[in-house]
Amino acid sequence: MIQPSALVLLAVSLFTPAASAHGEITSPPARLPGPAMAQACGQQAVNAVLADSTMPIESVPFSSSSSCNPFLCRGALFADNASLLQRFTPGQTIPFKASIPIPHEGPCNVSVVNTQTNSVVGQPLLVFDSYADERLARLPANNTAFSVTLPTDGEVLKECGAPGVCVLQWFWFGEGARQTYESCVDFVVEVSTGVQEGAAQGGGEKLNKCGRVGKRRQRR
Predict the structure, then answer these.
(1) Domain membership flag for residue 114
(2) Domain interval for residue 62
(3) Measured between alpha carbons, how far is 172 from 169 in angstroms, rounded to an integer?
């Protein structure tokens, strides 16, 4: 007799080939699913992402629990990823690498997101009006290898000093496929007391329900 857990794993394995391989950040290390995500969003969601780490948000079988936010880091939580925390300094340039086995053209940005308020801190650090265009014979090199630079003052320094608060979020929306991809890198900014006190105050832009930068959504 097949146990229920085996049926779940079988269902995930059958589902994966049709949906596998779209895109994700591979460096710096991004949030992964784990027990805390399973508690919030369901074990099926965790199993699906473990089977295909590039899966779009729309294909993940999230639970309907109010504690699960699929459009914030695809449901992944800091509690499962404390060991992956990155430590950066003001003005530091951070190289990224992305894997995009199946491209879908659409906008993309890398932003600092306060996960406690689900809002963008300051301005996006990098914006692509058109990203991962499947009509191209070869993707531009900067689609899979790029960098962002942290500001030297402002809201990021003010809000991102404690672990578990801020992430560098890579957000990509494939317009034709109507699919959303997110990878989140947990980080803290290490600053001197003088710099911290001089950081400008102010709030970031709220993310809409699809996880996009509300005021920065651009279409071609």
Answers:
(1) yes
(2) 25-202
(3) 10
Q: How far is CA 9 from CA 3, 13, 136, 207, in A?
A: 10, 6, 36, 33
The predicted model scores a pTM of 0.81
- Residues of the chain under the 70 pLDDT cut: 1-21, 193-220
Is 137 inside a domain boundary?
yes
CA-CA-CA-CA torsion sign (207, 210, 212, 218):
negative
Helix (H) or strand (E) holding 14: helix 4-19
Q: What is the pLDDT of residue 166?
A: 99
Q: How many domains does the chain have?
A: 1
- Which among 50, 57, 59 is positioned nearest to 75, based on CA atoms? 57
| Residue 83, in any domain of the structure | yes
In the structure encoding, which two tokens stand for residue 77, read together? 């939580």
* CB atoms inside a 10 Å sphere around CB 35: 12
CATH number at residue 187: 2.70.50
Cβ contact 165:159 at 8 Å: yes
DSSP state for residue 39 in the 8-state scheme = H
Q: How many residues does the chain have?
A: 220
Phi, psi of 131 (to 5 degrees): -140, 145
Residue 118 DSSP label:
T
Residue 207's nearest CA partner among 196, 215, 199 is 215
| The pLDDT of residue 194 | 55
Residue 105, domain member (yes or no): yes
